Amino acid sequence: MIIAERKPMEEIRREIAPYKKILVAGCGTCVTVCWAGGEKEVGILASQLRLAGSSEGKEVVTLEATVERQCEKEMLAELRDKVEGVDAVLSLACGAGVQTMAGFFEDKPVFPAVNTTFIGMPEKEGLWVEMCGACGDCYLDRTGGVCPVVRCAKGLLNGPCGGTRKGGKCEINPDEDCAWVVIYRRLEKQGRLDLMREYCAPKNARAVKRPGRIHAAKA
Amino acid sequence: MMMDGIIVAFCCERSGYPAADLAGRLRLHYPENLRVIRVPCAGRVDVIHIMKAFEMGASAVVVLGCEEGACHHMTGNTRARERVRYCDTMLREVGIEKRTAVMVNISPNAPHKFVTAAVETSKILEDLREAR
Fold first, then answer.
1. Were A31 and a residue from A36, A161, A181, A209 both cysteine, which residue would form a disulfide, CB within 3.0 to 4.6 Å?
2. What's this model's pTM, rounded to 2 decimal places?
3. Contact in structure between A130 and A3 (CB atoms under 8 Å)
4. For an interface test with B, which of A5, A48, A58, A62 has the most B Cβ atoms less than 10 Å from its Cβ?
5. pLDDT at A219
6. According to the model, what pLDDT value does residue B5 have?
């Protein structure tokens, strides 16, 4: 899923400073799961903005709404009435959601309230880790399902660097496991260690032509 | 309803509320600006409830839950403590330094601790007012 984290409060307040009536819009999918922009976070942020406004003697009117997915136009349609009545929209969705919203309601300024950071998974409660760089040229078949492109600090495709620490930790970040040690152990368990000897040619950095566009056939 | 200068006390019905009740029956004096709200568990108090209390003008919010390890719902009191800490961070983030959220663990048979919590919260507020 897409992981995001809320922007610093000063930045959010700077974005919406010229506006009085604001719709704080959440997204019910990825950013809800990573505690960045779901219904709960919408309520808290709106409350913070009202508190900040009242403490400075400035009236801030906030509306709150959360749709299932902000990256789908059909789901944004239900916000039409609310968006029409406000000066600006503060979106807590990922970059895709913010852009879909901005495109759908072109006459309203839409501001991001979160920074979209990576595609990842929850490691434990409150901790999300990056798993995929969306490079468009998947290499996981040869690495036991561990992506060295993002999980190796150096993004090495052919085995570990010389800096792996004792206990299989990363040279750059000693708190992280060396991705290539994880790959080795995984392949060892599966009896596929021969894959470690296979050379991987440099990746095609242009596997996805930007902006990415896929026409898929419905099954 | 505005609540300027009010301390809102969310009291767990198994600890904070009986303690407040007992304090009343014993005619113990505690700050008159404290308002008790009975909740089924301290874990029922969400961040947004505390934020709303501040929005309505409360100067402080006290969440009174069971002693550590004694929560009837297992983890309600520990969750409440985390939420209270989170709320305090949210307040500081928007530059509100003179109000505070406090978590207090209490037994149902500790009316004096209830009074102490109320008095100490008032003192914290006074200190915050004087500090800035």
1. A36
2. 0.91
3. yes
4. A48
5. 86
6. 80
B4 at interface of A, judged by CB pairs closer than 8 A:
no
Shortest CA distance from A54: residue in chain B: B55
Band (pLDDT 50/70/90 cuts) for residue B3 is low
**Domain A2-118, CATH number (from 3.30.420, 3.40.50, 3.10.150, 3.30.530):** 3.40.50
- Does the structure's ipTM exceed the value 0.95? no
Query: Which sequence spans correspond to the domains of chain B?
Result: 15-110
B50 interface with A at CB cutoff 8 Å: no
pLDDT for A194: 96
